[in-house]
Amino acid sequence: MSPTWPLRFSVAFVVEEALALLSKGISPYDGDVVHETPLVILLFRAASRYLPFSVGYLFLLLDVCVAWALREIAVVHQKLVVKRQKSEKAKYAEGVDCVLVLEDIELPDLMVFLYLINPFSIATCVGQSTTLLSTTSVVLSLLWALKGSVLLSTLFVALASYLSFYPIMLIVPITMIHYDVSWESRKPRISFILKISLSFIMWGVMLLWLSYTAVGSWQFVNAVYGFILSVPDHLPNLGLFWYFFMLVFNHFREFFLWTFQINVFIYCIPLALRLRDHPAFMLYAFCFLISIFKSFPTVGDVALPLALLPLWSHLFKYMRYTFLASCMLLAATIIGPIFWYMWIIAGNVNANFFFAATVLHSLGQILLLNDSIGSLLRRDYDLLHGIRIPQIDGKLGVVRLR
């Protein structure tokens, strides 16, 4: 059994295959093995040539970089939330002090600790999944957005989009974070959006041009992004695509392929409208959407939103399904490799067993995301209307979030 079954489509050994082809003067995109971006391949080639230590240590350095960025994010985010909270306190109802956010000096270290002991982040690092590059880019884009640096935040969100395409949707919360951070001296909204959009496009075009310069052709566009969008490979993974498209009739394939791919992005519109006052939380929600609905997810994708969740520890008192969601993720993590072995190696069960584990994995994430969004909205209601439920005709009223 391959120990990297959850990392099937983004592991370092695929990059090693690309390096072997390059060493013989063959384009790595001539076949159907390599689906990594050219700059990642060049990064590994440079690391293998010039670094005095094993390439495996590169992933360890990336993991440390993510942990450092999470700590800085916790520090900056707390200060911004508390500052914003003080400016809006006049709008709050009486008796809501118990749900206000207080600066917690232990939270930054706690986030680092929880990330480093997370089994999903450990598996990503040990399995040498290149998903860690995308994770690093996303957390750095969030960090620099919170610090107000447009160039650096758009650079890293463009880099994350370049690496795995789906993070392109994160430009929406990144833009809103910048607008939220500069709330004291806001510029006109249209010019602000244009500035960030142009910066994002500039970095994206530059990354694509560098990739073209590196390999001398545009083959990588179809090999990387065409592969992600068309889903030609139906080998089992943690996602929902492989099982469905393995069974669907060919003349229906294009319709359902468009439906599945649009499904990843369609939720961004209502979430962006509803969570416009909480752009950092919006980015957390989008990361969960990517992890759940992307075509080839890995364990590294779910590690990112789980690492960001402690930023909203003040919502834990409102959350009702944390234990159930945790049990679902834990169960899926345990039975997934077991069903994989029983199906692929032993041949005792069929594909339905492993697909059941992947569905359980996705349902656990969906439940956790819905619970956290509901908790955020309920807390917002309590801040504006008070914690006590009003009485109507002598009976307790019912609070409905809309």
Describe this structure in words.
The chain is built from 17 helices and 2 strands. By secondary structure, it is an all-alpha fold. A two-stranded antiparallel sheet has the order 1-2. β1 and β2 form a beta hairpin. About 35% of the residues are buried.
* Secondary-structure element order, N to C: HHHHHHHHHHHHHHHHHEE
Structural class: mainly alpha
Question: How large is the share of residues in beta strands?
Answer: under 5%
Number of helical regions: 17
Helix content: 55-70%
Q: Which consecutive residue ranges, at least 5 long each, have pLDDT under 50?
A: 1-9
Strand arrangement within the widest β-sheet reads 1-2
Q: Measure the end-to-end span.
A: 48 Å
Features:
two-stranded antiparallel ribbon, 17 helices, globular, disordered N terminus
Question: How do you describe this structure in short?
Answer:
The chain has 17 helices and two strands.
Layout of strands and helices, then pairs:
Blueprint: H1 12-23, H2 38-50, H3 56-87, H4 107-117, H5 119-126, H6 131-146, H7 150-164, H8 171-181, H9 189-215, H10 219-230, H11 241-247, H12 250-266, H13 268-274, H14 279-293, H15 299-308, H16 322-345, H17 351-385, E1 391-392, E2 395-396
Antiparallel strand pairs: 1-2
Helix pairs in contact: 1-2, 3-4, 3-6, 4-15, 5-15, 6-7, 6-8, 7-9, 8-14, 12-14, 14-15, 14-17, 16-17
